[in-house]
Amino acid sequence: MPIQSLLFLGGAVLLAGIGAFLLFSGGGEVAGGSRNEVPAGMVGVPVSTLDLPAYTEIQLEHLLDENGQLAAQYLPEDSILESTIVKPIELVGRVLAREKSALRVFREADFLPKGTRPGIVAGIPAGKRALRIDTSKVSGIIGLRQGDRFDLVATYQGNGQGASPQSIYGSSPGAGGRRARSALVADGATVVSALEDRALPGATPGTFGAIVQEMVIALGPDEIPVVTEALEIAKRIDCIPRSGLPGEGPSVDTNISATEPRRSPYEEPVVDLIEGDRRSLRFVPDPGLPAVGTGPARDGS
């Protein structure tokens, strides 16, 4: 290797070492002057010079201004909260839990646990799986933001090829029989990534349908096939947002076991009943519901 290359390489390593020492030892300059010029009683708190999206891994270049100096906001020492991060070494490598605006100080609550992988997988709650959906197929989901929780209710059209599904009580709810039924297909889903536009591969730019609006949501592993089926065949899917207030409890459906796979509504047993020249379909109820044909409970019976 030529001597010039060796000298250049050695100089680069030396400069990198000096830079790392200044950063991680708390020395070096910050935006607005050197640390020796910081007014008495003030502390330079590191900030990003860029707007950073959620799930970004903080890198050194995020903390440098256009002059290559550490950017900082000077705050009175007494005003700095205990949760505020004041050492750059504690920022580099951490993954943001939410969007962070430029020149805003960092707090521990802004970050996901140490060791979290950056990117969209960082926003998937433990034990959940992510699914990218076309928001045009879900009524009421547009407007939700990252971290919002909601349920999904699918409405299915009655099937039967000439035979109309009847009420589980054995009587038709109206002329023509039962035409639709609803089912909870997602319980406590979470927005991982809010609304974003995506161009369909091969679509002609500017044509109708060339751009779709999508959202990434987190679901339970057993809910993934049920929701994907509903997106394909359900007549309607409604988003039911949950409260964002602290203390929001678990699902209202406390009878569903966490380990019990969620069934598709079309997996529920159906009886094909033929009476003379009449034919009808009847959904078999869950064990907790009255048997087919018993009818609703009546007082004094």
Keywords:
301 residues; alpha+beta; 5-stranded antiparallel β-sheet; 3-stranded mixed β-sheet
C-alpha geometry:
elongated
Q: Which whole number gives the mean pLDDT?
A: 76
Helix and strand run: HEEEEEEEHEEE
Main β-sheet description: 5 strands, antiparallel
Fold blueprint:
Blueprint: H1 3-24, E1 42-46, E2 72-76, E3 129-134, E4 149-157, E5 165-166, E6 180-199, E7 211-219, H2 223-233, E8 236-241, E9 270-275, E10 278-283
Parallel strand pairs: 5-10
Antiparallel strand pairs: 1-2, 3-7, 4-6, 4-8, 6-7, 9-10
Describe this structure in words.
There is one protein chain. The protein is α+β, with helices and mostly antiparallel strands. It has two domains: 20-116, no CATH class; 124-244 and 261-283, no CATH class. The chain is 11% helix and 25% strand. The chain is built from two helices and ten strands. It has helices at 3-24, 223-233, and strands at 42-46, 72-76, 129-134, 149-157, 165-166, 180-199, 211-219, 236-241, 270-275, 278-283. Strands 3-7-6-4-8 form a five-stranded antiparallel beta sheet. A three-stranded mixed beta sheet has the order 5-10-9, with no helix packed on it. Strand 9 (270-275) and strand 10 form a beta hairpin. The chain is elongated and about 95 Å long. The termini are far apart. Residues 11-18, 20-36, 160-175, 251-259 and 288-298 have low confidence and may be disordered.
